[in-house]
Amino acid sequence: MSDLKQTLKEQIIEQLNLEDLTPADIKDDAPLFGEGLGLDSIDALEFIVLLEQNYGIKIADPSEGKDIFQSVNSLAAYIEKNK
Amino acid sequence: MKIYVTGYGLISAIGVGEEETLDALRNERTGINTGEKEETKAYKVGEIALSNDELKERFKLSTEGSRTALLGMVAAKQAFEGHLLSDEIKTGLISGTSVGGMDISEQEYRNYLNGEKHNPENYKHHSSGVSSEQIAEELGITDFINTISTACSSAANALMMGARMIRSGMLDRVVVGGTDSLTLFTISGFKSLMIFDADWCKPFDNSRKGLNLGEGAGFLVLESEKSLSISNKRPVALLSGWSNASDAFHQTASSPDGQGAQLSMVEALNVAGLKPSDIDYINAHGTATPNNDLSESQAIKSIFKEAIPPFSSTKAFTGHTLAASGGIEAVFAILAINKGLLLPNLNFSNVIEETQLTPQLSFEEGKTVKHVLSNSFGFGGNNSTVILSRVD
Amino acid sequence: MYYIHTISSITNQDSFRNEDVYASLREFDKEIDVVAPDYKEFIPRNSLRRLSPILRMGLTCAMECKNFLDKNFDAIVVGTALGCLKDTEKFLNTFITSTSDFLSPTAFIQSTHNTIGGQISLGLNNHAYNMTHTQNSLSFEVSMIDAFLCIKDGKKNVLVGAAEEKIDFLEKVQPSLIPNGYPLASGASFFAISGEKSKNKIGIQAVATNFNSINLENEIAQFLAKENCEMVDLILTSGDVVKNTTSKIESINYLKITGLHYSSSAFATHIAHDFLKNNDAETALIVNNLCKGKLGLILVKKG
């Protein structure tokens, strides 16, 4: 699980061009949107692309993403459950 | 100073010209169907059945161009019919487009990526400015040519630019509007944003899922008083108000309260010297995306308060024709004014929970329609409003 | 007169925050794209991560121009012929090569021509008039015409400029698009203008466009006569040096300096401004006939 989280952080940095961040800057339980990393609705769509490309998980309705993309923890849990 | 409209033309999925368009509107017949081309067959789109060659032949087009340019030529020629070029009337053309010649470029670029025969000559149609030059060439207009590319508000901005140039005396007459063809680029783009409705779009409905794309063109001829005295054309409407404001909220999303939309509508009313209660019908932007329709509803509520005039989105007829929409919908506004129409908002069943607004649901004729307000909002927070008025 | 209060250019030359661009001009340097500042000093990191070079240049120049104002611009007018080519090409690649149901949307949303103006409105939190003109080689000139109309309409401070970006693919197709031998370039130039006199009293007296240009020398003479201008001190031209009967000094082919893009005349206007500011001279004319049959004329003046 912690390997998955580390990989996820690297993938998030690449997919969203967060070039100034390192995986260590992203806390497992920190909110990714709003106050956290300051991500927005376009980033949520990039997460959907990321999940499909790297984990074969398809989220057809972007509104489902709200809970899944809360933090690295929630993302990792969703991937574990659905892969 | 009054800005007179003395001609109009349009082509969209519901038809070519006034007669076909009115017939579809009256019979509530949408132009949106499952696409018939390779790139559109997976979607519900407002596709124009005529191929490029059929367009050239049927409308006797003598200038080459991308599909965007050809559609523009069809609508602009209709609008300009009966108008004569004259040294005494300084005449311009201002066209809005977002895709320009992308329909050609994307095919060519695919060939390039696939290592197939690649002809760089074809990119000469790419730039949006070229499509306007081609439309101007078809009409013989050389005094002034301009292209505006503010995404989905492009045509509305072209109307506004034309009116301001007439008012300042830079031009006497100007053909204004917009054109966009369906391209794989825009289809893929809206797919990437996950804002397509796989079914028919439902503007202002609580369960709306997203938009259907369309293609087409709509153009008007604007003239000054001086130009009218020479051209002897009969004005069919006035372009009385216009405005452009910035939402400055997000690259693609509209602000929750529709701040840019509010600013745009208020300023257009100011330019026209009208009160909100003077507006008889609103042709909304109404793309049927969850975000736009909520934001636009909030903006309409905040301006028109308890007395919201009949409003509808006609995008369930034509699909969202992007840069052309403001031109096509300006023609709808003129038809509404001259024939006393209220245009129906198709596919509506339930009010949006947060705003509780019911759009105009049926086609009505014989109404008094003096002033129509038409919204066009684009990516980048580019919000524009035009107001068309009856010539009294 | 439409007075120029601030100019900011990011180009192949050392033009950013340079008080005398004219004096430091050199031949175009093919080894570099643009001499860019560190964008992180201007644009918040969270915005910067998505921005292509044209957006970085445009937004940074706009922010620089804003520095002279204590309030926001009353209008923003942007010219670009080919717009956000990098994101356009990126998205073409995405959807042509992808077999997935899900496509990355970022390049698409940043590919429209008005992304430059839109990003400026976001960066400056500006709700005013925001327009994007895309008229090929005359995109900057028509933008200027719109900016002047804004001032005539009663708006006070207007930001107007142009930006273009070069991509490698453009070099492959250049012979079919702009068949001349100049190196392709990127660049952005933005101007804060108003009807109120600026410190050095330099402004733009007039801009003219001609979409049916037949006789360049006649058209220039007619324009200057209309503007009551008998003698210009400097002529900047795109391409062939204009036969110089009206100018005291040699005319300069600005494409050798700016490189070739459709909005090079914007940077030429910056050069003209700095020439007038730092020399005993009163007028400069920019002659833009980059595309056959299309002519743009800009008269820059001190006074």
Please provide a written account of the structure:
The complex is a heterotrimer of chains A (83), B (392) and C (303). Chain A is globular. Helices cover 53% and strands 0% of the residues of chain A. Chain A is mainly alpha-helical and 83 residues long. Chain A contains four helices and no strands. The model of chain A has no long low-confidence stretch (mean pLDDT 91). In chain B, the strands form two sheets. In chain B, strands 1, 2, 5, 6, 7, 9, 10, 11, 12, 13 and 14 form an eleven-stranded mixed beta sheet that branches. Chain B has twelve helices and 14 strands. The longest helix of chain B has 15 residues, at 290-304. In chain B, helix 9 (259-272) packs across helix 10. Helices cover 34% and strands 19% of the residues of chain B. In chain C, strand 9 and strand 10 form a beta hairpin. Chain C starts with a strand and ends with a strand. In chain C, helix 2 (53-66) crosses helix 5. Chain C has two domains: 2-194, Thiolase/Chalcone synthase (Peroxisomal Thiolase, Chain A, domain 1, 3-Layer(aba) Sandwich), CATH 3.40.47; 202-302, Peroxisomal Thiolase, Chain A, domain 1 (3-Layer(aba) Sandwich). Chains in contact: A-B, A-C, B-C. At the B-C interface, helix 4, helix 5, strand 6, helix 6 and helix 7 of B face helix 3, helix 5, strand 3, helix 6 and helix 7 of C.
Overview in brief:
Chain A is built from four helices and no strands. With 83 residues, chain A is mostly helical.
Flag low-confidence runs of chain B. none
> Per DSSP, what share of the residues of chain B sits in E-state strands of 2 or more residues?
15-25%
Radius of gyration of chain C using CA atoms only? 19 Å
Helix vs. strand class of chain B:
alpha/beta
Query: Which class best fits the helix and strand makeup of chain C?
Result: alpha/beta
Series of H and E elements of chain B: EEHEEHHEHHEHEHEEHEHEHEHHEE
Strand order of the largest sheet of chain C: 3-2-4-5-1-6-10-9-7-8
Distance between the termini of chain C: 9 Å
Largest sheet of chain C: 10 strands, mixed
Kindly report the CATH topology of the largest domain in chain B: Peroxisomal Thiolase, Chain A, domain 1
Helix content percent band of chain B: 25-40%
Shape of chain C: globular
The number of helices of chain C is 10
Uncertain spans of chain C? none
Q: Any idea what the CATH superfamily of the largest domain in chain B is called?
A: Thiolase/Chalcone synthase
Q: What is the number of strand segments of chain C?
A: 10
Figure out the total of helices of chain B: 12
CATH level-four homologous superfamily name of the largest domain in chain C: Thiolase/Chalcone synthase
